[in-house]
UDP-4-amino-4, 6-dideoxy-N-acetyl-beta-L-altrosamine transaminase (Amycolatopsis japonica), 377 residues
Amino acid sequence: MADFLPYGRQSVSDEDIAAVTEVLRGDWLTTGPAVTRFESDLAEHTGGTPAVAVTSGTAALHVAYAAAGIGPDDEVVTSPMTFVATAATAALLGGNVVFADVEADTGNLDPAAAAAAVTSRTKVVAAVDYAGHPAELDELGRIAHDNGALLLEDAAHSVGGSWQGRPVGSLADLTTFSFFPTKNLTTAEGGAVVAGSDELLARARGFRNHGLVRDKAAQRYPDEGAWHQEVHEFGLNYRLPDVLCALGSSQLRRLAEFKKRRAEIHARYTAALSSLDGVLTPAVREGADPVWHLYPLRVLEGRRRALFDHLRAKGIGVQVNYIPAYWHPVFEDLGYRRGMCPNAELYYGQELSLPLFPALTDADVDRVIDEVHGFFG
């Protein structure tokens, strides 16, 4: 059998390895200059919006919701077409997650559904840039702000993309990124929160570092001694170490290259599969400049599982992204029921992520295409 093709994989260069080695030979493994440098480097891709580096995309969501002040009985309106962390991190803070349906073509949060879901208790509308295609952030922002809420963009898939000419990271009140190995760039594990508000940034930085207050001007008991630090609000240790931040800065220098290759692979799949009966290729809305994290093929007539099994048997590591978040038993046990978001459930029932990462060769892509065509005969 030919080599196994995963659906996603990191791309690590000698330059990346050298950047990490340099930190390992230095004085700072964590809380040092590489963290500040990575945050500054990332801001160059977010229209200058400042960043707070954290330990994972999940940590970024948790930090962002904490910065937004989510607590018991506050509502978070979000999409079910996402990894469970988008909802779970709000629930862990006591928030009430309200799932709104998605657009049938993109899998992104439908503005009309979001507008229907918001109430006087809504504190955050959380959009997800599914597969790397930005959500309709301008309209979703208006819906959130007209109701006194914040817009959060879960951009785990879309760093380096843009919507209506504006870079991801500059469009929402809070934006979260993930730098897991399968994402558009990696720090091994890692993430970031981006915000234009000084208040939200300060709250994010505080929550990332146990809530510690070291500024004497802000302390309640500033005369205790030079060693003194205080906690005014609870936080956690979500600090991303210098070692991983150095990898992130090195990876950012290749983000344009990664984006270009992902687009080439995406276009090759679409050219070969768009006329194939039995599947739908991904949609692109006007004004979207995606960074394609996934290639979400839609398999019709209930044949998704059969194609999944066929391709896996051929050594092609397709994946399904995602089970609607409220289908997880943890939400089921809270009273959420299937049938709430029919577009999302239909999308899930058809979706199959084909391999997509920069190191895929054209021959690899053609192998996947041939096997898909072979399945449909």
Q: What stands out?
A: DSSP finds 13 helices and 15 strands in the chain. Residues 255-273 form the longest helix (19 residues).
